[in-house]
User: Fold these one by one.
Assistant:
Number 1:
Amino acid sequence: MNQIEKVDRFRAKNRDNRVWYSGAVHILFNATCLIGTTIGSLFQISDLKPLELFTIPVMLIAGNLAVYLIHRYPLHTKYPYIHKGSYGEHTLFHHRFYTNENFQVVKKEDVDTNSLFFPPVVVIVFCLIFIPSLYFILNLFLPTNIVFLALGMSSFYFILYETVHYTSHLPENHWVLRISHLQRMRQHHMDHHNPKHMSSYNFNIVFPLFDHVFGTCRR
Ligand SMILES: [Zn+2]
Ligand SMILES: [Zn+2]
């Protein structure tokens, strides 16, 4: 059986095994939590000074590094205790569902197999534990506006991640991929889905900054 047939069989099995999962509810839940956290944080800002806007590029770089490290290590390395939810969900499921030769969402049911977006529990932990913890830490030494801009940008980067990862798995001729950056990131991510390269190359999703920094960019 070749790789494409293997993926087809894996997808069919998982489409059939769906129980109560709904892709639309999953997307709506993640979007509500993350957009709510972004807007809620940004609404706390008042009298923003031009210099405080430097928080935006700093957080884009920090988000890029965070995604790189999370993707390269827990999602592609087996660590005790957490591997089922991290390595298992990503390397063993997402990467079996989508390989470089069978990369795109084919049917609506593919979105409905819980194969594309971060699980709601990760979003809940992010919004209810990570964001408040970051608030208490940053609030110790940074002005309020910078703290809330950093929180808003953290959540916004999560939205960027989910969006660009989703568009990367769309068919190559989808209208949204006329945006050249999204088309480039699709190619970047498709190369990552080659089973031979997935543990070594192309861990960034939104823009490939830290793949360049750490020498893991493969074209
Ligand atoms: Zn992917
Ligand atoms: Zn991966």
Number 2:
Amino acid sequence: MIDIRSDTVTKPSKEMLEYLMTAEVGDDEYKEDPTVNELEEFTANLLGFEAGLFVTSGLMGNQISLLNHTNPGDEVITTSDSHIQNYEHGAASFLSRIQFRNVQHEDGNLDLEDLKTQINKSSYNKPKISTVAIENTHLSSGGSIIPFEDIKKLYEYTSSNNLKLHVDGARVWHAILENKSNSNYGEYCDSLTFCFSKGLGAPIGSILLGSKSFIDDSREYRKKIGGGMRQVGIIASAAKFALINREDLLDDHKKAIEIYDQLIINKNKIDGLDSIIYKGTNMILLDFTSIELSDKFLEKLLNSKIKAGYLREKVVRFVFHKDINSENIKKIIEVIHSFS
Ligand SMILES: Cc1ncc(COP(=O)(O)O)c(C=O)c1O
């Protein structure tokens, strides 16, 4: 089966498994796991932060950031389609007891004027807005990249208006590598989390990055929500292996482009396919005119042993990752050509 539902389906490679077998471990709750300590330091240095905390998931990284940056009843500014608001099982209201306020955006890039309007609207009888959360790459628009220069401008505004800026960078390496952009996020946001368990190919884990005091407090929150871990150097070393090999993510962009080109050529042959969206990283979105026709399309793929899925109703998502090889790409192209 060729599984292009998500980049979360990647399995650890043989090389990764061999690498992790040699990991030195200790009790991470005592900060005695040398492999975890090294990963946290290595990652913080890579992205220009003071410190890092290994957490179980992207969701945990996002939610610990909100616990840190907000007080109950605050508002957090984000986009109406963000992961932190829509796909985290209500964790923000459950844990931090905050509410969200949405601002206009293009592909996840906040409209600074609208942001300023929303902040100015906030007055004595409105909730306090304490945090702004962005997502890079931006999932709902198809993995689009927020230019680093725009993040800098946003941070200039948030830092001078007493607001914290959090970056949900679950797939931030796609943005950094594709744009060959500055990776010095530590200077331009208050916190950032990214996932080792998506395109990077590790079985589990994310990192949360910030200032030393932010990470000290985050360690406390991680414990409170049951995220404390023990001899996790084993999985931290898989994460380190993934990070060392991060340039491989660019191969996934090439795979996406190859399939995108074929989809464009064959678009009219696919019943009900309205538009094909590619935003320069590892995903393609296929927007259909009806759910019946998108269901039919997915069924036909499945009959050819290709498993794709939905991003949202009528919008099919192809996500390319390290476990899709050149033979798989050939097969997908063959199946695209077989539509008539
Ligand atoms: C943009 C974004 N943020 C956060 C997450 C949460 O990551 P996890 O599944 O590790 O909790 C995801 C997962 O798909 C995501 O796509």
